[in-house]
Amino acid sequence: MKLFSYWRSQATYRVRIALAIKGLDAELTTLDLLKGDQFAQHYRALNPEMVVPTLIDGDHPPLTQSLAILEFLEEQYPDPPLLPSEPYGRARVRAIAQVVAMDAHPFIVPRVRKYLEQELKLDEATRTKWLTHWLETGTRAVEGMLAHEPRTGRFCHGDRPTIADLCLVAHLTSAQMLCGVKPDAYPTAARIFTTCMQLDAFAKTHPRKQPDAPAAA
C-alpha cells in the first residue's frame, strides 16, 4: 500500500488511524499542499480533485476521499471492525462521522483558506473567525449527538473505536492546531478524545509526528 499524505490533513489523519488499527502498513508519500505539490501532473492523474488522501492498494486503481477509503478498508480488511454489526448502530456511527467530515471540514481545507485570503482579501483575524465558527459548529453538533445517549460508551459508539472516533479526533486535532480551540466546552467529546489519544493508533499517527511536519508544529 501507498498513502499520499500531508502532515496537517485532517482527512489523511483519519486514514492513518484506520490503517494503524487494522495493522496495515502503507508507504507514506508526502505532499506539501501549501506549496502546490498536489497540482503536479503525475498526482493529478491519480487524484483529479488534487487533494489528499490517495491510497494505492497493489495494482488496483487509486482510492480517494477519506470516508470512501475508510469504508473500503472496513470491507476489505474487516478485523478489527470500525463499524458496529447492527444497522442502526452503523447508521449512527456514519452520521457522527459525516457531521465533522462532510459538514464542517470542507469549510476549513487549504483551498478554502487560500480563497478567503487571496480572492476575498480577508485578513487573518477574519479568516480565523471563519475557521473557528465551522470547527465549533461541528463539535457542538457532535456533542449533542453523544451526550446523554445510552449508545455512547468509552468511545462515540460503545467501547471500541469506530469510524466516528477517527473523524472526531481528527476534527478536534485540526481545531487545536489551526485555531487553538480545545474541546473543553464539550465534555463528552473531550472525554472521548482523551480516551482515543491513549491508544497508539491515534497517538503515533498524530499530525505532529509525521515526517513532513515542521519542527515547530
Topology (SSEs and partners):
Blueprint: E1 2-5, H1 10-21, E2 27-30, H2 41-46, E3 54-56, E4 63-64, H3 66-76, H4 87-104, H5 110-118, H6 124-146, H7 163-179, H8 187-197, H9 200-203
Parallel strand pairs: 1-2
Antiparallel strand pairs: 1-3, 3-4
Helix pairs in contact: 1-3, 1-7, 4-6, 4-7, 6-7, 7-8
Q: What is the helix/strand order?
A: EHEHEEHHHHHHH
Average of the residue pLDDT scores: 95
Please identify the structural class as seen in this structure: mainly alpha
Sheet having the most strands: 4 strands, mixed
User: What count of structural domains?
Assistant: 2
Strand order of the largest sheet: 2-1-3-4
User: Share of helix among residues?
Assistant: 40-55%
Number of helices: 9
Uncertain stretches: none
CATH topology of the largest domain: Glutathione S-transferase Yfyf (Class Pi), Chain A, domain 2
Structure summary, number of beta strands: 4
In the CATH hierarchy, what is the class of the largest domain? Mainly Alpha
CATH architecture of the largest domain: Up-down Bundle
State the distance separating the first and last CA atoms.
27 Å
Shape: globular
Structure notes:
By secondary structure, the chain is mainly α. The protein folds into two domains: 2-80, Glutaredoxin (3-Layer(aba) Sandwich), CATH 3.40.30; 87-203, Up-down Bundle (Glutathione S-transferase Yfyf (Class Pi), Chain A, domain 2), CATH 1.20.1050. The protein has nine helices and four strands, in the order βαβαββααααααα. The chain has a four-stranded mixed beta sheet with strand order 2-1-3-4, with helices on one face. The longest helix has 23 residues, at 124-146.
